[in-house]
Design brief:
Helices cover about 75% and strands about 0% of the residues. It has about 190 residues and is an all-alpha fold.
């Protein structure tokens, strides 16, 4: 039985012009492929990270709100956007944290506008906020970058049911406690 060649082996067998053609076709398949390649080759100095983040936020907003007068609530697609951009921006943790917090903020604004949602909806928001807290908890200074947004989120969620406000408050307290411990240790 013949063993299939790995992707690396297949690419290694290509001539430089063939490889360029494959890369161009790959970029045509998806704008994210092109963004990844630009970011990989040019770095953040040449790539427009702000435009990427704004695009991601528009996509997340669209997953929650759609185009009608009622919320769309496509949480799976919204999470997929965060996941895709997390891979794309792997060297920029502050931007990843920003997108995760934005996901939670938009979901919370849906609740503010339309009233209580279902338990799974809140579980998704809490899960994303927990992931955000883990990311921010890795860097002592990151909390301060997001502090105002975190405080606003905590204030808004304090009156929301299904234990959502309690979960957010508990995660914020854990994040603050970890920050205080790092500061006390001098890290």
């Amino acid at each position: 039985m013949a063993q299939e060649k790995s992707l690396k082996a297949l690419l290694k067998d290509l001539e430089p012009e063939e490889l360029r053609e494959v890369i161009v076709e790959f970029c045509k398949l998806s704008p994210k492929n092109k963004q990844f390649l630009e970011l990989y080759l040019q770095g953040s100095a040449a790539a427009d990270l702000t435009a990427m983040i704004e695009e991601a936020k528009r996509e997340i907003q669209g997953c929650f709100y759609g185009r009608s007068q009622f919320p769309k609530l496509d949480l799976r697609s919204a999470r997929k956007v965060v996941t895709e951009y997390t891979k794309l921006l792997k060297d920029y943790p502050e931007w990843i944290a920003d997108l995760k917090l934005y996901y939670v903020e938009v979901g919370t604004s849906v609740t503010e506008e339309y009233g209580d949602m279902y338990e799974g909806f809140y579980n998704s928001l809490v899960s994303m906020f927990s992931s955000f807290c883990k990311d921010v908890g890795k860097d002592a200074g990151s909390y301060y970058q997001f502090e105002q947004r975190i405080r606003r989120l905590q204030s808004v969620t304090s009156q929301i049911g299904w234990g959502y406000g309690d979960d957010i408050a508990a995660l914020v307290e854990q994040l603050q406690k970890a920050g205080r411990e790092r500061e006390a240790e001098g890290r």
